[in-house]
Amino acid sequence: MSFTLHASCGAARAGTLATAHGEIATPVFMPVGTAGTVKAMTADAVRATGAGIVLGNTYHLMLRPGADRVAALGGLHRFMDWPGPILTDSGGFQVMSLAKLRTLDDDGVTFQSHIDGATHRLTPENSTQIQHKLDATITMAFDECTPFPATEDVAAASMRLSMRWAARSRQAFVARPGYLQFGIVQGSVFPALRAESAAALQAIGFEGYAIGGLAVGEGQGAMFATLDVTTPLLPQTAPRYLMGVGTPADILGAVERGVDMFDCVMPTRAGRTARAYVPEGHLNLRNAVHAADARPLQQGCACPACARHSRAYLHHLFRAGEMLGPMLLTWHNLTYYQSLLRGLRAAILDQTLPTHAANLRAAWNSSHDPAT
Q: Is 116 one of the annotated active-site residues of the chain?
């Protein structure tokens, strides 16, 4: 693994992460392909947005089609036609999100499948082994994503469990050239717990460090305050990944605080529900105001939704319930996110990030429907 920092502007960083499956220019946004596909997109379409890395999910791929089957078919890269880097979530988020379907103990988590009710077990060891079978470029340590709100005592117990699991995940990881494993900082919104977690992970030693347990209801102010105290505690020489974030405004604020990597379902989910991200904020294409509007969604955007169609046509597709509407809008939203991150990287390299960030925020704030 080689992570090279090319420039910084304040706390913001621009770098390159070299992996076994190609280089990743940071800061970077990773489209979410939970079950081996980015919803409503072909792999070629995802590539056309400018994405260089995608995310898969251990829990969902474990349930179907199963890690052994994916391995027998050549690994996740071949299976989903994505030869570039893939990061796999460990299943730790499902420890929180599927709380009604699981039982947690010090050794791991027993899940009742949300698909057929069958019982499955995830531990730090087999989560890491499943990610190995999938041939994940970046493997995530198995953790418990602490829910919000949580008392400091509850957050402390959860974080320390995750640190024990991180050590076991690291022991189970098979080191190979160009493959990485990230530890995950937990501790909710409590600075002392975040500091304890960051120190524990660095004592174990990982190729990269993620910040988990945010974007779970704490609000943007608390998230930024937590990043303010957490990112300075992480190594300058390793990539930093803020899990599950977020809106364009969230990403901008996190980049300014030294975060390098992001993922979120927001642009794809928004695309399926007629919400389009544009430089002025976002638009609801179901609204009647778009019914006769011949303009593209975004002037100058090269995605098919903008280059070939009008707002009126996209409005028609959603009102008619045609599947092409979600497909085109997902393509556009992912293109917008990739453009946003490329612009932030360029501004860091050019040392113009404060001006660029101010211009972004001014455009969002000018809209009645800002990108927050």
A: no
Work out whether strand 138-140 and strand 119-122 pair parallel, antiparallel, or are unpaired.
unpaired
Please report which confidence band the pLDDT of residue 98 belongs to, taking 50, 70 and 90 as the band edges: confident
263 among known catalytic residues: yes
Same-domain pairing of 245 and 332: no
pTM, 2 dp: 0.97
Question: In this structure, is residue 370 part of a structural domain?
Answer: no
Cβ partners under 8 Å of residue 200, min gap 6: 163, 166
* β pairing state of 275-278 and 281-284: antiparallel
Which structural domain, as residue segments, surrounds residue 282?
271-365
- What whole-number distance in Å separates Cα of residue 233 and Cα of residue 119? 39
Q: Are residues 238 and 341 in the same domain?
A: no
Q: Which of 44, 89, 105, 107 is catalytic?
A: 89
Q: What are 130-157's pLDDT values in tens digits?
A: 999 999 999 999 999 999 999 999 999 9
Give the residue from 264, 295, 319 where a domain finishes: 264
Structure tokens at 300: 């100058």
Give SS3 for 332. helix
- Which one from 44, 260, 263, 350 is the annotated catalytic residue? 263
* CATH (domain of 56): 3.20.20.105
Asked if residues 93 and 49 have their Cβ atoms less than 8 Å apart, the reply is no
| Range of lowest pLDDT (111-115, 207-211, 230-234, 304-308) | 111-115
Q: How many domains does the chain fold into?
A: 2
DSSP secondary structure letters along 263-297 = E-SHHHHHHHTTEEEETTEEEETTSGGGTT--S-S
264, 286, 314: which is the final residue of a domain?
264
**Chain centroid to CA 14: how far?**
18
